[in-house]
Structures are given as C-alpha cells and as structure tokens.
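ugh finaly. both done.
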Amino acid sequence: MSKSLHIKPREPFAKSEKWNSATGCLTLAKAGAFTVEIQELKGFLDDVKHPKPDHVKRLKEEDFDKLSSWDKSTYKANMKVYDKQELFYEHSVQQIRNGVQWCWQVVGKGLAGKTMEHNESFSYGMPRDFLRQIRFPKLLEGGGLAWLEIFTENDPATGKRPHGIFVNATGTPKIIAAEWRDHTGNLITEDIAFGSTVYLHIYTEALYYQNINIQLVDDGWFTNTDLTPTPSDEDGDPIQKLDPKALTQFKRQVNTHPYNTTTKPPAGTITDALIFDKGKEQISAGNVQKCVFPIFIEHAWQFQAKGDFKSGNSLSIKPIVHHSKIENQEKKLNDCILKISVNGALKKGELTGNNPLLLGEAEKGGAPEDQKKIDFTFGVFIDGTNNNKYDTTARLDWEESRIGRKATDERPFTSDEYLKVYAKSEDELTKKNKEKYKYGQGSYENELSNVAILFENYYKDDITVFKIYTEGMNTNTLGTEDPKLIKYKKDDIMMGAVFGTGNSGIVDRVRRTIEQMRDKILQGLANNEKKLIQ
C-alpha cells in the first residue's frame, strides 16, 4: 500500500541536484534525468496471496549422503513442497510490485482535493533494483513544481511526503521569440486599426510559472515613447485613479500552452508533450512554454505617440520584456514590431480596454491561467547580540544532568544546588558535555531571552503560518529542525559583537532569516493545481 511505500532521491546527490529534506523538494540545476529510490516498509506485502513459507534449511551434499533412504526420500519431498511454496510466494510478491502505479503531476494550484492517478506515460510496477529514473521536461524549467508519488490501486496516492517528492528545475532564463496574433490565433502581418484586440505571445525558456513584465513603446527613428495602458474594469470602462505614477507595464505569468496547426510556435521554442485528463481518459498534446498578453490598442495612444515626423495617425509598437533573471534584465524585441494606422484592419476581440496587472484572465489563443494568491504569515524572531536559545538550552541540559531536574518558577534551584550546578572550571565537564556546552561563553551562560520565549509560544500551522528563529549576532551555533544535527560552537571574540560583521554579523543573520523564509515558502508551494506531465 502507498502508506508503506516511500520514495526519495538517490544518494549521493549530483552537483546539479539540491535536496531539501524539510520540504521534500528536489531542485535540479536544469531539466533532465534524476533517479529515485523506492523503499518498501513493513506492511506493504501483508496482502500477498501466497504467504512466505517457513524457512527450511538445505542440507549440504555430505550431510544428505549420511541420511537413511527413508530420510532422504522424506527430505526430497519436503524440499519439493517448500520450493513450490517459495515459487508461489515470489510470484505473489512480483504481482503486487508489478501493480505499483506512479503519479507524476505538475503542481499548479494545489494537490488538496484533487484526484491523483497513474500517469499513463509511465509503465506500471517498480524495477527489481528499486531505482527508477525520471525525466524532468525542459518545458517546465523555471519555477514550477512537479509531484512524484508511488502508490497502489488498493491504497491511492496521498499527496503527502514521504510517499512522494516535489521536483523542479532552474535552468537559464531566456526570451526566445515573440509574435503578435489575433483572437483566432493567426499571425498578424498587416497594419491594424486603433480599437483592435491583439495578443502578444512571448516564447520563453526556464521561466515557467514566473511573472514577466512587458513595456510597449512607439518605436521612433530617434526616440521611443512609452504607451501607457489605461486601467479598465471587466467591462472595459476606464478606472479613474489619482496616481502620479502611471502604469507603464503589463504583467502576466509564463505557463504551458497547447498548440495546433494554427498556433504552432516558431522554431527554437521550448515544446514538449503534456498529458491531460479528458473525461476518463488521458490524452497527450503538444505544449509550448510562453506568456500571452491580451492587449487593447487604445485610441488614446494616438496622442501619446511622439514618433518622429508622425502626426498620431500611426504607431510602431515595440515590446520590451523585463525580468530580473534574463540577460541585462530586459530584452528589446526589435524584430516584433506591430504596425498601427487609422486605415488599418480592425481586429475584433473581447477586449474594450486594458487591465495591465490582471493575472490569469483566460482568453482565446491561449491566455495565462489563473494565478492563485497565497497569503503567508511569518513570525520572525531575531535574537539579540550574544543570545542564542540553542546555546542556552545546551547549558540548561547540562545543569539538569548535574542536579537531576530542571529549575522552574515553582521550584528554583536551592543555594546548595546552585553551587553544585555551577562549574568552577571547564575540567568539570565530561567529553560528551563539551560537545554541546561551551564553558564560559556568553551565549551559553545567558538565560533564554524574551525573543526566544516568544518564538517558542508563537502559533504556527506549517501550512500558511510559519515561525522563524534567527540566532543573535556574535553567536555561531546555528539550529536545525533535527536537534541531533546541531553543531555547537564558541562565540566570536570581537567581529560579531563589536562590529556586527563576519560570519555572525548582521548581514549574515539577515541572509539566514531570508533563507529560512524561502524554505518555508517552498512548503507552502504544495498548494498549487496539478497537470499530468510526460
């Protein structure tokens, strides 16, 4: 059953693989193959049709020769029965293993409440060496997660770790190409009129599930002029805003989009087959990684245009893509100019205005899918200089071992107990004590701070509410979720406390806080919708 089947990435990890055991997420440097190890736990083979026979010791040839004729005959008969039972058992076990199914899904809006099923592009069963190689498609490079889980028909997928793992791939973000299309998906090759609805298709690499911005400019001979979109409501009516900073960019999310003969992407784009549910069947369809921007060619843009020697009768719209991870953080699409003129062809569509920051409004021709907003709450507790709850706890544990109990408000240590618990020198500590308690170090001798106490009592659900503790400056012990993995260290002498620099300085502590928040956010990314991937 799936509750008795676990999977994890095979170790040792390659340099291109990063495993976060806390979130159960494997991050690949780029798309490609990775290997998972299958673990059978106790109970998986409980329902085997033919039980495992009791072990019968096989005799060596010299021992067999010593038997009487009757014992030889009896032994042969018993071994024949045993071998037959063993064969039946092995066959029953293989039948169970051959029925194992694989869930391999893209995580979009969340696994909760979704039906997870076998991906038909996978063969049933598990390899005899309990290792399976999986291909992460280049189509999903960027920021999207995929979910991999092993399960059986009688015990369906759970969508929980450690029965499955999350996988993503980073890649190198690029803007590959861009095209202007109408609402039917056909390429626009002629001049079009003001008041038209058009769709800008930006083909990307390693930007899946990330937002990109585009800026539209009137491409003049000497200067470019921003074309400012007028925010509109769902009916296309302008929204009046007293905002001194006008919106100059559209924002949308990169996704995977199916294509047909009409919407076939240009050469060199990132394409692959995805498997989708269609009724009770799974179908495979070609998809491309891209972002689609629905744009209404506003009449007001005639008056914004300052193109050289133009009177407002025409525009040459050039897109500029903005994203922090592409080269130079922007790309001017000089080969993707849309010509607008008062005598151009009117491209009708469902838009009557622009909504530049709306994410996920579906439209014909492959608009971005809905982007789900997830609100996370973080309680962030950064301790003061020379305070570290892990160091303090190490000293308190040592004191408890000396007295045989902890000091409490109701029953504090007596004077004699204080004398006994206090170490006059480091020599009083055993070797085991010294591994944790660093005698004479300020962070160890300090009591738990208010920050540490507040952290311990702060509510969390590890779904959308998280708490983070960051050790104070001048201390070098860094905590982990597994106390056994904590490496206790002495405090800094000067750099952290006096100057706030070095490995225990303010910059390091801010970085550590942000990294912990990043890891917690990865836990929350389990709330995204699925797609099956091939």
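ok and the 2nd:
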Amino acid sequence: MGKEGKEKKARGKKKYDFVYWKYDGGQIGSFLTEEYDPIMPSLDCKRTDFFKREMKPNKHNKILMEELAQSKKIKIRDCVQLKLPIDGTSYLSKGKKKTKLDIDECYKEFAKMFSPEKGPKAKVFIVKLLAVVLSSYFIKNALRQKDVLNMYPLLNASAALCAVIRNCGSDDAIYALRILCHSLMVSTTKKENGEFKIKAPTVLPVKGKQKLLNNAWIRPRKIETDFKWPAPYRDTAVMLDGRFFQKSDINNFLFINPWCTAVIYAKKFEHTRLCVELDGKNMLDQLKVDWNIDAVNKLIAEYIPFINNTFDKRSHANDSQDRSYADIWVEAGEYLANYMITKKGEEIGYTERFKQRILLSALLSFVDFISSSCNILPDDVQNLKRELLTALLPGCCPSKSEEEVQVIHFPAFDEILRELISPENMNHFYPITKKGQVHPTQQPDGTEIWGYVRKYRDEESNKKKINIAFFRDVLIKIVEEKYPQCGNFGEVLAVIRKRNPAYLHKTPNIKCRTAKGGEQRTILACRLILDELPISDEVKQAFRQMLPKNDK
C-alpha cells in the first residue's frame, strides 16, 4: 500500500466528538471536533443513534470538511451536551444590591410613563404592553401550576404570549415603541459564562437592516469559527421589528424560543401563539419620552426574582410580601369575573379569558412588588392597582362608591395623637438603640408594640432629634376599633400626609423589621418628630428618657 493509501486509511479511522446543545423548542445546535473538553459536565450523552440523525457537521472547519469528503462514515467517540446560559434569574445574583432609595427613585421614573398629559390612549397601550412583558418573566412557572394549566386553551403545546402591533405610523412611532421595549424588557441571558460567546439583545434589530442571526447569536468559545448559531431566549421578552426580517425568520425565532414573549411590529403576520393585539396608531408618534429608561429597567429587573419567589410560597396569605402566585391567580379570576359581568351576556372565548387572566395576574403581582419594595402608601398602592387594571380591562374594578366606606367624623388627628402618645401608653413603644435593630411585636409581658422610639440626625440642622414611629396597620386598627362608626382611618392618614404638618417627618413612611415567632418581616410605619408633636413637654421628656443619652 502506498503512502497516499495509508493516509486515507488513517483518516477513515479517526473519531470525533459530537458537541451539541438543545434549545427550548427542541432544536439541536451542534458541531464536530476532534476533541472537546467541556467546562460543564456532559449530560444525556448515550443516545448516539439519535444524534447521528440530527448531526450537522461544522462546515466552517476545513480539516473536518476534507476528512468528511474522503470518508463515507463519521465515527463518533463521544457526545458532549453543553448547557445554554439561559437560567432566568441567575444574572441577578451578582452585583451590588439596590438600596431602597434606588428603588424609590426608579418607581418615580416608572410613574412618569402614566402621567395624565400622555392621555388615556397612551396609558392603555403602555399598560397592555407592560402586562405582556411582565408575563414573560413567569408564564413558564405559571403553567406548572395545575389551576393555571387546566385553563390553558391550546392542546399539546404551550408557550409564552405574543403581542402584535400592526400599525404604528411614522418612524417616530417605531422609535417610541423601541424606547418602551428597552424600558420594560430585561435580558435574562447570562452573558458572562465560560462555555459560549453570546449576543442576545432584547430589541431587534439593534441598528439598521440586518439579518436576525447577525443581531442575536451564540458561539462556543472553544472552537475557532465565524459561524453563528441562533441565540437562546427564555423567561424574557424581545421586540422584533418586522420591517427588517422575513416572516420565516420571525417564525423560526418563535419556534426555537417558545418561552420568550415576542412583541412584533408587522402589518401582516400569522402565528400559532396566544396573541394580544396592540393599537399604537395616532398615539406612539406623539408619545413624550420623559422617563429614565435605565431606572425603569432596573425596577423591572427587581420584579423578576420577586414574582418567581411567589411560586415557592404557600397560598392564602394577605400580605403582599407573603402571597403566593396561587393567591394572585385567584384574585385575577375575581377581577376577570367582574369584567365579564359588564359584558352583559356577550360571549368571551376561553382563549381570551386565559390571556386576560394571565395579564391581570402580571399587573397584580407587579403591584404587590411595588407595595413591598417601595416607600408608597397603601392608598397609593390601591390607586395604582385600580389605574392599571382599569386600563387593561375597563369595568373589572368595582366602582369607588361600592368600595368606599362613608367617613363620618373622626376626632382631630392632633387629639388622637395626644390620646395615644401618653405616659400610660409608653410601654407600647419599643426603644431602638442600634442601627438595623429588629424589634419584637410584643413586650415580654404580652403588651402589644405599637411602634418605636429612636434618635436620628436631622439633615438640615445636623442635630440629633427623636422619632416616634407608629406601625401603620396597628395605628389604623387601634383608631378604627375605638371609633368603628367612622369608616376607613387609612384615608384620614392620606389626607394628613398631604397637609404635611410640622410633626410629620420629611420621609414619613419607613419600613421596619419586626420579629415574631422566630421569623422576621417588614412592615410600614409612620414617622413623627417628637419635639413637634402637639403633646405636653412632660410627655415629651418622658419619651426622651426611654433612650440612653449616649445613643447614636
């Protein structure tokens, strides 16, 4: 046998590693290489027959191309499965934790998106887009819940929602839509990983007229090639501008990424997903973008772990921090039932009911998140809930006249304070002497704690002063039990805050950490300045003596 024949025989005996990864839609990305040492451990690598059928050699490896051209059979030494970097919430585990002030500022920017001057049509569009995008972060987990899955209208398949905007108008309108999507869409793809190079933006195309694969791609780090595979997306939302992509490309994107919500601008586009139609005509081109995009995006990023934690909680909780998704789903059903009553016998299809209930649950969970994470009054939380739900489904909220209890006359708030902040009630207040101190909900003798007393440094005068803080829910309970005929005392507190009396702290609402039965929780308190309160000097001095003189 000549030299050429020996070389050919040697090449025929060469074995290759088959390296692959699997998309959520079931598609396989793969390549052949002489040897591959994975960073992640191999998974499910025994089904060699299956992979031979699905195998697509890496056409950009010239050595392999030459080998394959001279050999009819490809000998597989090993199959290596790579894990795609699309763990929905892992990206949030790194970096500096946001402070409460950061979140409050982010919420202020978010609120600008719904300012009155933007008009009712803009509010409806933004609320529906918000609900669709929020649903992307949890719908996969939601469909693991039996009660949710039983209502899902499609057989033999499930996927995230799809929103279609068929008519925006001018280029200014498309620009406004892109800004909205940049604000609300958070990438859940783990960019920093040892296995892949990845580019996965949430608004496509990034710029100009480009192919989808040039905008969103993935490539193993351990091979040298210019070839790109489609980027994976999961538990997030992506905007696709249909002016630049072929319909087949968009459909392929949807098939590969079933758990990615797609917001598509396209005049003519057919698909198999549950769809929400959005109308941006004569509105988006006039929308004033006056909010901080990054701040809103940070707020949404903090929502993602909040909503996913609700699937680990037990149901039947009343507090917004402790509610499970099952509780939220039940409440969404109640609002949907209210909406259906307003339709007066008009038929609402099964598919439409499921879509609206998912969107309602998205908004309700977001309101829970805002309530537990931001410094916002409970009355303002209720107003936000009403505003969002009414924009999504007009008529789903009971009228205010049905909700409100007529407020007969409470005593003046100053009088209530004099009655409660008194020497005989001092044991109901807990002295805080250390920063970050957790206080109990009752004294050792069983006396209920109403609030705390602590020193603080006034920013304007740079002098030490003393706060008396009432736990808001406890204060409302005490007053309403004493004056049951007077209705909702929470409304009175909202009015007091607007009047801003001298004894009200500059930041009147503060979150406090309490401990009960070995468990810690956060509750809202109303801060008052001791020296400014309408109480006697003797009472003020008595409360001052609760704290040591060297307290910092």
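summary for the 2nd one i guess: The first strand starts at residue 15 and ends at 22.
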